[in-house]
Amino acid sequence: MLYYTYMLRCADGTFYTGYTTDTVRRIATHNSGKGAKYTASRRPVELVWQKAFTDKHEAMHWEARIKKWPRSKKARLLSPTGRQLELAMDQTDNKAHT
Questions:
Q1: Is-contact 4 50, C-beta < 8 A?
Q2: DSSP character for 13?
Q3: What is the pLDDT of residue 95?
Q4: Among 5, 26, 82, 98, whose Cα sits 20 to 30 Å from the Cα of 35?
Q5: Structural domains of the chain, ranges and CATH numbers in brackets
């Protein structure tokens, strides 16, 4: 089973980060108003980033880390250089687990 950490752009321009096993279903839930309280009043939302994991705890870890980031760092993840930020995070995580 795969787990996804995802980021949504809300109608007011803010970002929301979460994790799920089914991004299509989860985004539909957010857009129906039955998702998180944060997104209910900021619809519609659109998926702007996601990363797949085989480990649920790793997906939850990325979600928690990204939620603590300032908006500028979240925007950087979405930029053309965002892949470099992901790789740096992966390297940091790998060092922590060795």
A1: yes
A2: S
A3: 65
A4: 82
A5: 3-70 (3.40.1440.10)
